[in-house]
Design brief:
This protein is mainly α. It has a single domain (13-163), classed as Serine Threonine Protein Phosphatase 5, Tetratricopeptide repeat (Alpha Horseshoe). The chain is 70% helix and 0% strand. It contains 9 helices and no strands. The chain has helices spanning 13-34, 41-53, 58-68, 73-85, 89-93, 97-109, 112-124, 131-144, 153-163. α2 (41-53) crosses α4 (73-85) and α8 packs across α9. The longest helix has 22 residues, at 13-34. InterPro entries: CID_dom, ENTH_VHS, PCF11-like.
Length: 165
């Protein structure tokens, strides 16, 4: 395992490079995210490519997107692009309570036309995210919108299985 501290008791060069790289990723990604005010497909694709090229920092990238992105549908489209185009570890990283919270907070502040787009987006995730996560998103949204259908876990699961066969 690489040493984090050199013989002089100071941070090693490897440690400093890694720290600088992480700092650079946060800075670069923050700049890219700040450009995604509207649902500009080109800007969203740039972030997906960035995430793909730096998959070894996927945890940091996912955290940055969830914590620093605006609570907007554009930010959800960034996540959507990454999970559908890069896939892999990003699906796991975006499959937690923070994703439910991000979707819910975005929904709460959205107007009806955006909520309709979010409905379509959420249903495009069948077969990408786990049925359990999708059911939790549905239940959370239905608390603030009684018209939001809560797809039962079994139905989501059977839909997910059928599209993968």
């Amino acid at each position: 395992m690489p040493e984090l501290i050199n013989q002089n008791g100071k941070p090693s060069n490897l440690y400093l490079k890694n720290r600088a790289c992480k700092s650079s990723i946060i800075t670069d990604l923050s700049k890219l995210i700040s450009k995604v005010k509207s649902c500009n497909k080109t800007e969203i694709e740039k972030i997906s490519v960035y995430a793909k090229e730096r998959v070894e920092y996927a945890g940091l990238i996912a955290k940055c997107i969830l914590n620093n992105g605006a609570k907007s549908i554009a930010n959800l489209y960034v996540i959507d692009s990454i999970i559908k185009n890069v896939r892999g570890v990003y699906i796991t990283l975006f499959s937690d309570r923070s994703m439910i919270r991000r979707f819910s907070e975005t929904f709460e502040s959205a107007e009806s036309n955006i909520r309709l787009k979010m409905f379509t987006l959420r249903h495009s995730w069948n077969g990408v995210f786990s049925p359990r996560l999708l059911n939790e998103i549905d239940r959370e949204i239905s608390k603030s919108d009684s018209n939001w259908p809560v797809m039962e876990f079994e139905k989501i699961y059977s839909y997910s299985v059928s599209i993968h066969q």
